[in-house]
Please model this.
Amino acid sequence: MPSNFGWIERKGRPGNHVYFNLGFSGGSTNLAMKAIWEARGLWARLFGELSRRKDAKRFFDGVVNNLRRIVTNR
Model:
């Protein structure tokens, strides 16, 4: 069973990549995430520099909550 997977956006937010790594950790599962945003063009790069993700914790918490909801079918 694969323990690594990724999500790459093609529309909406092109250049946005989120990678996940699942690992066994005692009686639970350890989840590691990595987000990469590649600017596509000069304006995207300028906008990215001016509005960098200021709250990465909130972003990753939202991703984890969405994954929980999908896994538990709620």
User: Anything to note?
Assistant: The chain has one domain: 4-72. The chain is about 35% helix and 35% strand.
